Amino acid sequence: MTSPNDARPTFVILGASGDLTYRLLMPAVFRLFLAGKWQSPVLGYAPDDWSPKIFLDRVEEGLREFVHEFDEEKWREFKEQLDYQAGELSARDLGAVAQKLQDQSAIFYLALPPALFGQAAQALADAQLNRAANGFRRLVVEKPFGHDLASAESLREALHQGWSEDQIYRIDHFLGKETAQNLLVFRLTNRFLASIWDAEHIRSVQITYGETLGLEGRWRYYDQAGALRDMLQNHLMQLFTLVAMDPPAVWASEALHNHKTEVLRAVRPISGSTLDASAVRGQYTAGRVGSSEVLGYRQEPHIPVDSRTETFAALKLKVDNWRWRGTPFYLRSGKRLAEDYAEVAIELREVPRGLFGEGLKNWLVFRMKPDERIDMLVWAKDPGLTLKTRSRVLSTPYRRRDEMEYSAYEQLLLAVVQGDRTPFPRYDEVEEAWRVVDPVLTAWKTGQPDPYASGSQGPETQDRLMENGDVWRRLGETDGLDSSS
Ligand code: BG6
């Protein structure tokens, strides 16, 4: 059923007095508004006994701080669409929201601690806010989707009590990044890649997300989570599926998610006997990042001195299907590393016979940080009198400087409003990703992470994942772009 209101559903934020709302959500909404892409009214909801005016003041403060293009006139226009309602996560209090919405289309964004997701979804359903006579109702949740396979399943059950899967939009913000979207578009649009996208031609894939940042005050969450849950189970596994999935026959959400789930199902289980060769964990010690001396993880405020939480995790995935048998996928992410550096790097096998030299490999690299671009490392003749080779990098940024940059949140919020489910993981993807990491989490309940100095490349033990002479790329790798281009 559609109604005129479908194009501008009310965007209800549960947890509207929290940090996420001011730092991320409202700045993203306002930037979309500035770009002429957002028309929806916003209704803030939280237990704080605020007037709409207090809510507006908080939003304005956040926008002035986080939106560079803040514009007074546009703000006056925008704030006309903002409202606030105080209330608890109970069906009774949410009745006031039902009254305001009047059976029109609405989106409920849970900007709440994950422990409250189930309760919030249930209270919304009990207040009959999960359906509308004159439009649609959608529910948006953000990771973490559980902290292991069993809790992910419980969360699914709690959400599904009142909401169907196609009403639920799970935000994994990496899927709103240009790189994630380009992995699909570049891969599935360029004919020359189609015939080489398999184990016969691709020797390995390395997905790296290195950060110089440490805890940033998030100790309460992070010490419970660790790098495997925080980055690999969701963000990096999603990038992996975009590289490894079979192309869907049509551009349709269900087809895409079927293919993503299928490749996740083909990931070989990591078991006790393969664990050491498939998973590495590390924890940073004191060191120097850039020009600053930083503390080790166990010396950080609030962190137990014997914490075994990993701040670095690496996995090697094997995919048992026709396309990928024989190609290892290496995934890693860590805090307090040498560089803010992230990429999806695809290594091609050498030509069968090296007429002009040995060991000349091609790389196709989707760079995420420090800048977003695609690089291809190729070999060409060295100019001059001999047939010597030298590497060249064919490189293109995703975006020209004069083109608008949309954040991952902006991309994803707009997709929710438009009902485009393609960039949101379906439950079975989440479940399969937990299936892969669950045995590792269990094994890591004992033992210790390997120490690495802050500002380094991570623990040396990460090398034990490498097979057949593969070598980790360095954080900060340029593939010679600066010198040869
Ligand atoms: C978040 C993690 O999901 O992603 C953080 O919780 C991490 O620990 C962040 O720093 C990285 O994403 P981005 O887009 O901020 O680089």
Describe the structure.
By secondary structure, the chain is of the alpha/beta class. It folds into two domains: 4-142, NAD(P)-binding Rossmann-like Domain (Rossmann fold, 3-Layer(aba) Sandwich), CATH 3.40.50.720; 175-404 and 435-465, 2-Layer Sandwich (Dihydrodipicolinate Reductase, domain 2), CATH 3.30.360.10. It contains 15 helices and 17 strands. The strands form three sheets. It has a nine-stranded mixed β-sheet with strand order 16-15-14-13-7-12-11-8-17. A hairpin with a 3-residue loop joins strand 14 and strand 15 (373-381). Helix 1 (19-34) crosses helix 2. The protein is globular and about 75 Å long. The mean pLDDT is 95.
Using brief descriptors, characterize the structure shown.
21% strand; 33% helix; 15 helices; 485 residues; Rossmann fold; binds 6-O-phosphono-beta-D-glucopyranose; 2 domains
The helicity comes to 25-40%
Q: How many beta-strand segments?
A: 17
Number of domains: 2
- CA-CA gap between termini: 55 Å
Major sheet size, sense and barrel closure: 9 strands, mixed
**Which distinct ligands sit in these coordinates?**
6-O-phosphono-beta-D-glucopyranose
Q: Flag low-confidence runs.
A: none
Mean pLDDT, to the nearest integer, reads 95
- Second-tier CATH architecture of the largest domain: 2-Layer Sandwich
Given the C-alpha coordinates, what overall shape results?
A: globular
**Which strands sit side by side, in order, in the main sheet?**
16-15-14-13-7-12-11-8-17
The CATH homologous superfamily of the largest domain is called Dihydrodipicolinate Reductase, domain 2
Question: Radius of gyration, Cα only, in angstroms?
Answer: 24 Å
